[in-house]
């Protein structure tokens, strides 16, 4: 099984910083977000490679995962063996690249990876969201295995007054102590984009992790443009429901770290610094007068 990480976007919310540095390379505790996503994918049993959908305008992502003997040797010569090992590790990850040079939507980005999938089910992990515990996709695969390899997406509960911001699932809860609590599993009957609260079939939205049947690639290849005149992955998933079952695993939204906006990324960095005992006190000291906000 392969995993796909779409990473061709311009990162306009972070401009001007992302004019030179792709947002996927912004660090959290010294490690670029995209590497954390790659390692999350590779933690799933059976995943033996990650395909990053990149743009030719973002060569820095490939450079991060490329071998750099000179840098390794320089670090080792200075006694910085741990740093040399971390640089070497990134280059040893089984990562390959395909390209999306036109911004034609998430579905179009995923379709660019089709030649690398070998007609097998595959994971999609959005590149600005990572799960430190590396457990979400593993649990999704377990649900898929229990249901004859069916497609599975991760969903989380959102307050009623916020459902109009998201794509919401319709269906029925088939296991779990409470329908919208973490651990529940749903059989999906539909996907509704940004419904009004009174029309929402549930309060569960897709959080950026998918395990999809290879059939989705055939559907994406014939998918008409949708919202924003782009090829939407959700539209193809709705068509997939006509012929195949699809399930949803309810997760705790707090499991993941969303770095998709400057404020969200800053919050994730602050949280990581506070949670790490090796940086907590130094981080609080660096905050100065603002430290009283987190003590």
UniProtKB/TrEMBL annotation:
The keyword Nucleotidyltransferase applies. Its EC number is 2.7.7.9. It holds the Pfam family NTP_transferase. This is UTP--glucose-1-phosphate uridylyltransferase. SUPFAM superfamilies: Nucleotide-diphospho-sugar transferases. It is an enzyme of class 2 (transferase). It comes from the Bacteria. Belongs to the UDPGP type 2 family. Keywords: Nucleotidyltransferase, Transferase. GO terms for molecular function: UTP:glucose-1-phosphate uridylyltransferase activity. InterPro entries: GalU_uridylyltTrfase_bac/arc (IPR005771), NTP_transferase_dom (IPR005835), Nucleotide-diphossugar_trans (IPR029044). The keyword Nucleotidyltransferase applies. It comes from Parolsenella catena. It catalyses: alpha-D-glucose 1-phosphate + UTP + H(+) = UDP-alpha-D-glucose + diphosphate. Residues 2-264 form the Nucleotidyl transferase domain. One of its GO terms (biological process) is UDP-alpha-D-glucose metabolic process. The lineage of its organism: Bacteria, Bacillati, Actinomycetota, Coriobacteriia, Coriobacteriales.
